[in-house]
Amino acid sequence: MSKKTKTEGVHPELELTIQDIGYRGRGVARDDARVIFVPGVIEGETVRARITHTHKRFADAELLEIVTPSPHRITPECPLALRASSDPDAPGFPCVGCAYQHVAYEEEVRLKQKQLQELLRRMAKLETVPFADPVGAPQPLGYRNKITLHGGTYQGQRVLGYVGANNHSVLDVPRCLLAHEAINARLAELRAEGETDHGSHGSTRMAPDGAGKKEKGWLQSLRRSATVTLRRTETDGVLDAVRGIKRLSGELTEKSAVGDLTVPASGFYQVNPAVADLLVKHVQGLIEASTCGHVLDLFCGVGVFGLVAGLAGKRVWGIDSDERAIHAAQQNAKARDLADVSFESGNVEECLDEMLTASPMEDTLIILDPPRSGLEQRICEALVAAAPCEVIYVSCAPDTLSRDLTRLALPSLPLKQVKLFDMFPRTACFETVVHMARP
Questions:
Q1: Does the active-site annotation cover 429?
Q2: Residue 14 lies in a domain
Q3: What is the pLDDT of residues 43-100, one digit of tens each?
Q4: Are 77 and 65 in contact (CB under 8 A)?
Q5: Cα separation of 404 and 380, whole Å?
Q6: Contacts of 51-56 spanning 24+ positions with Cβ under 8 A
Q7: Is 171 strand, coil or helix?
Q8: Residue 340 and residue 310: Cα distance in Å, rounded?
Q9: What is the CATH number of the domain that holds 334?
Q10: Domain range for 211
């Protein structure tokens, strides 16, 4: 439902009623038969918006004013978060990293659960799904153990932050509210290096030879194309790296639900340790309840799920293409004296046939934890042909998960449970654990 309020050239302004919030966090409204997407809104709100891009069947709009706010609307804690342009505190260049800074956290989790339900219904054609209650984060802010910032120039000043909505401009981010406070403290230290006491962009620090030559501050010395990564663990503190200058190298120790883990400093690990622990404990319960004696851990990373299975007395074969992660996984298994747990480096698609042939499918649980792109068609076909006893699919992308569940559909392997874990509060993303098992 919409009402036209004003027209300025080819950018009309409309009064819209937000009917839904789609995956990725944009509000869905309709103007006659056309769908209009508006960011920064909540289901049920009436807003004023301006069309920015028109496509054949839909249009994109920017939020101008909240006419009738939702009872779930809150003031964003981050000063860089998107606000209606009529808001006097609206940033001139908002950060697009957070999709839900304006929504009470309980409502954010409800919206994400609804999005997951709709994606499985629409894309996977699943009308009846055994959903469990979603799991929210203990801390919706200050949870990230890693951030990556980009160098750039904005309005003539050197900046360091996140890439904006136009995919090329960089927004200066002196402090990210999603990051652990220790990361923000280290970021502040780095940005202050070489700056004057007055905080100007020019440094008055003298050269070591005393010749009076000014040195550039840390921020000013970064290349425009620089990428800065800050990574924290409770054991190792905060490490920082600048691409091409200073690397994250070696291994770190992460505390987890299965004890201390060795992880590669520059490799993948979940960015929200608290929710990761809740997810691992959930998967642990599924593994321990399984009657299967064999486990194939595909895309195993540093081996968390394989370790859980090994500790439960299962025989485990894990595989991942990241050699650094596999080396860490092998160390983690050795530290727990798990002789029946094996981790190998390799491409899942290339090695899967051998793994499926070597393991008795009537006694095998397969754990899938692929990247955001999901499973290759070839992998799905091999799994369907093998018909394992049980599957646990851990996904960070509900759209590719929905696609893959269509490919994996087997009458002999029905869905037992689907559970959402809000691994990335305030952002548009979340994790899902799907359990499939023979009756």
A1: no
A2: yes
A3: 999 999 999 999 988 999 999 999 999 999 999 999 999 999 999 999 988 998 999 9
A4: no
A5: 7
A6: 51/11, 51/12, 51/13, 51/14, 52/11, 54/10
A7: strand
A8: 7
A9: 3.40.50.150
A10: 146-249
